[in-house]
Amino acid sequence: MSNDDRAPTAPRRDFLGMAVGASATAVAAAIGYPVARFVEPRPMPSSGPTLVGKVEDFALGTGKTVLVDEKPVLLLRSADGHFRAFSAICTHLQCVVGYSAERNQIECPCHKGVYSVEGVNIAGPPPRPLEELVVSVREGSVIVSEA
Ligand code: FES
What we know:
By secondary structure, the protein is of the alpha+beta class. It contains 2 helices and 10 strands; from the N terminus they run H-H-E-E-E-E-E-E-E-E-E-E.
């Protein structure tokens, strides 16, 4: 076989190689996308306002984690009795944050992320503030709902 005999087949091999590669990519995408959609958790629909306790269940100047729609929510009560609620899911890698009364700030134990009591990310890796929820008090009951 001479070099002249091989020359015409090289472009054909390149074309076949690209065609096989493109087909393999298409098959991987066709299989991978439905699998990824199946494995990925679906967002739960909100069940609406949630009663999380009585006012007296939350001492002044404290923070407590409650569940709203099966998700952890950090409910803060300031020294003057004002309530604020934030998603307790860290905006970095989704660890559960907690309130430090000693430092009067919200802290993430995973990578030392720190948020102010206004939910603003002030130190560490969290890229954005915590999501704030709406708190209302009706007839002595504390109710949390999404904004
Ligand atoms: S998960 Fe909270 S700082 Fe990393």
